[in-house]
Each structure stands twice: as C-alpha cells, then as structure tokens.
Automatic annotation (TrEMBL):
Family: Belongs to the CbxX/CfxQ family.
InterPro entries xref list: AAA+_ATPase (IPR003593), ATPase_AAA_core (IPR003959), CbxX/CfxQ (IPR000641), CbxX/CfxQ_RuBisCO_ESX (IPR050773), P-loop_NTPase (IPR027417)
Keyword ATP-binding: yes
Pfam families: AAA
UniProt KW Nucleotide-binding keyword: yes
Protein's name in the database: DNA, SC023
Molecular function per GO: ATP binding; ATP hydrolysis activity
Organism: Aspergillus oryzae (strain ATCC 42149 / RIB 40)
Residue ranges occupied by any AAA+ ATPase domain in the UniProt entry: 78-215
SUPFAM superfamilies in alphabetical order: P-loop containing nucleoside triphosphate hydrolases
Keywords assigned by UniProt, alphabetized: ATP-binding, Nucleotide-binding
Length: 325
C-alpha cells in the first residue's frame, strides 16, 4: 500500500470499499495528492481539512460502481456542474484537476484535462460575439473539465450576462449535457450575487464545494511544513538546518505567531496557502543570506522579522509590520 493511500485510509479513518478496478486506489491517491498540493500533507504525517471533498469524491465513485452493477448509466445520477466557493489559495484549481482525473478514470470523461478560463474567454466585444465565443469554449472543453475562475465577472455587464445565459442554455442541450464538467469558482458572496442575477444557475449547478480559509493554527503548520521541505531538500548539502523555533516552539512564541496570523488572515486579499508559500520563501531567502559555514538557522526573530515576512505582508496587504509576522 502506498504512503498516500495509507494516509487517506488510516489517518483520516477512511475505508474505500469495492471490487478491484472500481477506482478505490485512484480516489485515495488523487486526494492524497490534493492534500500534498495544498501543503496539508507531508511525508506521511498528518492532514488538515479536505475531508468534505474526499467524502464527495468517494460518494460519486460508489454511485458509479453500484449503478454499473445494476447496468444503469451512472451519468444520470452524478453531477457534472459545480460551484466552488472560497477565497484564493484554498485548493479550488487543484481540486478541479483531481476531479477531472477521477471522472476520467471512472469513464465519465474522455480526458482528465482542465481548461482554465475566466470571463474574458467567454465575453465578446460587440453584439453577437458573446454567444459564439462561449459555445466555442464549451466545444473545446467537451470530455474535459472547464474551470471558470472569478465567475462573479459573469454578473457584470450585458455581454457577461449573455455569456452566463448561453452557458445555462447550452448545458441542457444534447451536445453538451453531461459531456463535460463545468465549474464556476469564486468567493462565496460573489457566487451568491451571480445566482441572484441568474436564478437558473441553482438548478443547473446543484453541487457545491466549500473551500474554507486556513485558520491561524493551520497557517503555522503549513509554514512549518514548507520550511521543513526546504530542510529536507538540502539534506547533506549543508552542515545544519536549525528549525527548532517552529518544530519545537515555545508556547509564548506560538501564541505570538498565532496572534500575528490572526491579524494577517483578516486583511483584504489574503490568499491563504498562496501567501504562506510566499512568506516561507521570504523567510528562507533571508536565512540563506545569513548562512555561515553551511549552517542555516531560522530563529524566532527571523520568523517575525520585518526583513522577511513582515516586509512581504506590509507591501502586499497595506498593513503595518506589527500586524504581520
């Protein structure tokens, strides 16, 4: 049993039931990889979140398996249109890729490819241009996954509304119905606004996945894991890599770090895992510059330092270093 499968099945107390060749290993491996992509899983250690997503995929797999046992076409009973709700950096794009792979392995798509797009790819520049442009993108995505990020922009302006109407109309036609996965992604409030403008979306996109922001404690865990990966990557190339400040933190330091992340995660445009990756790179960059005798040390002062994470947060979120790491 691979480490990822073991982690999914035992760390999350999940058991994937079914006959050979019904996708159990695929679901476990792919969702293990989602956890890795998000930074929530590292070298067989622990997991943070993603349980709801795993439950959904396992439900779809079991539905397909059981219906095929009854010789019933499963396409009528599994969703092909989704709303992904959540802020940036919470795994929406990664989940779309893994979902495409699972549907492909279950024989529901002809390709695992994800076509990443935005309103710009759908909205025309003059009257009569939007409809054909939208249809062209849908045709290009047949048998694949079409991910429309920042979907709220389809609620802005007449041409954008025309694109949304075209999508709603096309996905019920035989040429497109259940022949591709369509995902509308964006902030929760923006998705709500889009639905209010086009009530037909509710019935066309009945399935929703919530992608929650990372908590301050999870921010600390992810930051630690990212720096631990740097430590592991360097291996024997260096004479030492001191990460005790995060691997064996003092309670006082953990409290201070939690407070800083609490403030940072409440700022506008906070991008969750994406921003933590940037903070990690900034901290590591300062540590490399300070390296002596091939020894790297990441101490408490460096993690909090205005030269590293605080400088990044201040520049990107218009807040003072005291409100950042």
């Amino acid at each position: 049993m691979s480490s990822l499968v073991a982690i999914i099945e035992f760390t999350l107390n999940r058991v994937f039931l079914g006959s050979p060749g019904t996708g159990k290993t695929t679901v476990a491996k792919l969702y293990g990889q989602i956890l890795v992509d998000l930074g929530y899983l590292s070298n067989g250690e622990d997991t943070i979140g993603c349980e709801a997503i795993i439950n959904k995929l396992e439900d779809y797999r079991l539905t397909v398996k059981h219906l095929r046992e009854l010789e019933i076409d499963p396409r009528q009973h599994v969703p092909f249109n989704f709303l992904f709700r959540g802020p940036p950096g919470t795994g929406k794009t990664s989940t779309a890729r893994k979902m495409g792979q699972v549907y492909y392995d279950l024989g529901l798509l002809s390709s695992a490819e994800v076509i990443e797009s935005s309103a710009t790819d759908l909205v025309g520049q003059y009257i009569g241009h939007t409809g054909p442009k939208t249809q062209e993108l849908l045709e290009k995505s047949l048998g694949k996954v079409l991910l429309i990020d920042e979907a709220y922009r389809l609620a802005e302006g007449q041409f954008a509304k025309e694109a949304m109407d075209e999508i709603v109309d096309c996905i019920t036609k035989p040429n497109f119905f259940q022949k591709l996965i369509i995902i509308l992604a964006g902030y929760d409030q923006d998705i709500n606004r889009l639905i209010n403008i086009n009530p037909g979306l509710t019935s066309r996109f009945p399935e929703e996945l919530e992608f929650a922001s990372i908590t301050p404690d999870d921010c600390i865990k992810l930051l630690t894991k990212l720096l631990q990966k740097q430590k592991s990557d360097f291996g024997l190339k260096i004479n030492g890599f001191d990460l005790d400040a995060l691997e064996s933190p003092r309670p006082e330091f953990t409290k201070k770090l939690r407070s800083r992340f609490t403030r940072l995660t409440q700022t506008a445009n906070w991008a969750n895992a994406r921003d933590i990756q940037t903070i990690s790179k900034s901290i590591f960059g300062v540590a490399i510059k300070s390296m002596r005798d091939k020894k790297i040390a990441i101490c408490e002062d460096l993690v909090i330092s205005s030269r590293s994470a605080a400088r990044y947060a201040s520049a990107n979120h218009n807040i003072q270093p005291a409100c950042s790491l």
